[in-house]
Known about the structure:
By secondary structure, this protein is mainly beta. The chain has strands spanning 7-16, 21-24, 30-39, 44-47, 52-55, 58-60, 74-79, 82-87, 90-92, 97-102, 106-111, 114-116, 123-126, 129-134, 137-139, 146-149, 152-157, 160-162.
Amino acid sequence: NNNAGALLENVIIEDCSGISFTSNQCHNNTIRNVTVRRAGYRAMGGYRSDNLLFDSILIEYANTENFNSSPDSACIKVTQSQHVTLRNSILRDSKCKGMWFDMSVYDMKVYNNDFLRLKDTGAFFEISGTGICANNLFVDCPAEAIKVNNTDNMEVWNNTIVND
């Protein structure tokens, strides 16, 4: 999608061989009540997309093609953007990272989400600045539940981490 102010709502995307949806070089986009199942590579993403909202998303079985988690495979990966929010969502049973901010994302908000049984890090804040990770549930993420790497001004609070 390259349209500013776009709304993707009440959509189910299944069995995509690559990336299911991405918001590139546009602003004020909202992705709400969207389900992505069995994305071959990455379920969703954003690049240079300011004021990007992911709300009430369900992503399951991402990375079915077994791409290496680094440098890019994730349920959702956003780069070079400002004011990005993931809320009220479930990312589960995927062979990759959950939510990944990388390469100069500013003002990240991740709250009221469930990260369940991910092969890699649940919420990853990398080479970015100013964010909140709060009121999330992380269950059986064998890497880190939350990772903050070369990122300043992060607030991390009221998260629950459970590993069997």
